[in-house]
């Protein structure tokens, strides 16, 4: 009997020890959770600051309408090899009588000076330098044309460029019919590929000069491709696409009317624009916008 009593006592102690171990583990886990919580709340809490972050809504930019009288498109480039000559086709459009001039290998400083020159000094440069500068060549004068092709020929540089390969000028010649603030000249900088930069022939940038001294840097807008409509497509979407509009990249139901800045993505309709803070295409913060 004494042995059985001792055995029962030992069994009771073993069971109590197991429960005690489990209880101890639970107490340790609870203490650890409380410690970590307090540690995260107080140790890593940012210190007080006087800077208050306020979300500012994107501001609408009011744009002034400018009638662009000129345009230039870069066409096909033919080149046998990178060390030979090139043959480039430019498509020019002019809705006023103009002087279309192309200069090969124009220095950066000269281009910068011409862009910032007053209108009269700008004209004087072409009157005086046209005959003595061998790289300037007249391709059209006193002519209104639309998508007229011009063939430009030249030699490719074999050294890293320190000049612009091609600089095209559209210069209005009907000074008597121009009003104050009218666009008077379009300056287009064109890249030609060589052995150091194989990027295709393309327009680098364009500057629009006005007779009141303003110089506008023309920048392209980025928009998604037009959506294709299936035979069972919605009538409203069909109407938008037939009008030449680009649909919103979020809802795909309404035309994109908001151009986001500074990324210049034309991708949102008026309803979806109210629900976003970043551009849905490139994730850039929307600082301002304008309507198209």
Automatic annotation (TrEMBL):
<protein>
    <recommendedName>
        <fullName>RING-type domain-containing protein</fullName>
    </recommendedName>
</protein>
<keyword id="KW-1133">Transmembrane helix</keyword>
<dbReference type="InterPro" id="IPR013083">
    <property type="entry name" value="Znf_RING/FYVE/PHD"/>
</dbReference>
<keyword id="KW-0479">Metal-binding</keyword>
<dbReference type="Pfam" id="PF13920">
    <property type="entry name" value="zf-C3HC4_3"/>
</dbReference>
<keyword id="KW-0863">Zinc-finger</keyword>
<dbReference type="InterPro" id="IPR042496">
    <property type="entry name" value="CGRF1"/>
</dbReference>
<dbReference type="InterPro" id="IPR001841">
    <property type="entry name" value="Znf_RING"/>
</dbReference>
<dbReference type="GO" id="GO:0030308">
    <property type="term" value="P:negative regulation of cell growth"/>
</dbReference>
<keyword id="KW-0812">Transmembrane</keyword>
<dbReference type="GO" id="GO:0008270">
    <property type="term" value="F:zinc ion binding"/>
</dbReference>
<keyword id="KW-0472">Membrane</keyword>
<feature type="transmembrane region" description="Helical">
    <location>
        <begin position="12"/>
        <end position="36"/>
    </location>
</feature>
<keyword id="KW-0862">Zinc</keyword>
<feature type="domain" description="RING-type">
    <location>
        <begin position="248"/>
        <end position="283"/>
    </location>
</feature>
């Amino acid at each position: 009997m004494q042995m059985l009593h001792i055995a029962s006592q030992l069994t009771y102690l073993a069971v109590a020890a197991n429960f005690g171990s489990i209880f101890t583990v639970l107490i340790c886990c609870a203490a650890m959770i409380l410690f970590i919580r307090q540690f995260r709340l107080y140790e890593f809490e940012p210190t007080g600051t006087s800077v208050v972050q306020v979300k500012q809504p994107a501001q609408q930019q009011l744009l002034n309408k400018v009638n662009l009288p000129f345009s230039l498109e870069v066409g096909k480039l033919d080149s046998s090899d990178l060390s030979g000559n090139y043959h480039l086709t430019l498509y020019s459009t002019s809705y006023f009588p103009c002087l279309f001039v192309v200069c090969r290998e124009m220095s950066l400083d000269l281009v910068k000076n011409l862009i910032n020159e007053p209108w009269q000094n700008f004209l004087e440069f072409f009157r005086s330098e046209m005959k003595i500068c061998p790289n300037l060549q007249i391709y059209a004068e006193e002519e209104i044309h639309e998508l007229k092709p011009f063939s430009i020929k030249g030699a490719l540089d074999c050294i890293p460029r320190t000049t612009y390969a091609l600089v095209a000028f559209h210069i209005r010649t009907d000074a008597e019919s121009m009003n104050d603030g009218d666009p008077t000249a379009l300056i287009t900088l064109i890249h030609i590929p060589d052995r150091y930069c194989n990027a295709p022939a393309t327009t680098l940038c364009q500057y629009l000069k006005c007779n009141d001294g303003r110089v506008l840097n023309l920048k392209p807008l980025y928009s998604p491709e037009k959506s294709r409509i299936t035979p069972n497509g919605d009538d409203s979407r069909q109407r938008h696409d037939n009008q030449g509009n680009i649909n919103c990249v979020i809802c795909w139901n309404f035309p994109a009317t908001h151009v986001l800045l500074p990324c210049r993505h034309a991708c949102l309709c008026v309803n979806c624009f109210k629900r976003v803070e970043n551009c849905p295409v490139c994730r850039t913060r929307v600082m301002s916008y304008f309507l198209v």
